[in-house]
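Homework help board

Subject: predicted structure for assignment chain

Our instructor gave us this sequence and asked us to write out the predicted structure in token form, then describe one feature. I got the tokens but I'm not sure how to describe them. Can anyone check?
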Amino acid sequence: MSEITKDEFGKSVKRYQLELYRFAFSILKTEEEAQKVVQRAIVTAYKSRSRLRKPEEFKSWMMKIVVDESRHIFKVPKWSGRVTSEVDCDLWDFIMQLEDNVRPILVLFYYDNYSTKEIGKMIRRPKCIVESRLSRARVKLETFIS
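My token output:
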């Protein structure tokens, strides 16, 4: 298979950059660190674009790279992002308080509409682990809502 072209790579990055940022932010909890991680992930992906076997899997491939890059960043405990409404803000604050191993799964599942199988591939965990963490998050979410 041929390597993704520079033009195709650029178009794909533009298409998914908001989702990559949102995912990085859900892991790291700060705008600055999320931006750094996404930038590093883009550079890493560009350098290794010959490893992308299927162009239609670009987004999930980039998400895996974001996870890897995020592991190199220190986490900051307080959220400092922006949200569009008070309800969104309360919900996002709640999500940011969840455990580090649950928060990204919740964002990928509910905000980016990935299946548990796809999320498992991204974070390199079995589907059953993803489902278990998602279930725990749902219980906490129900408590928050009621």
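Reply (TA_rk): Your tokens look well-formed. For the description, you could write something like this. DSSP finds seven helices and no strands in the chain. That's the kind of observation they're looking for.
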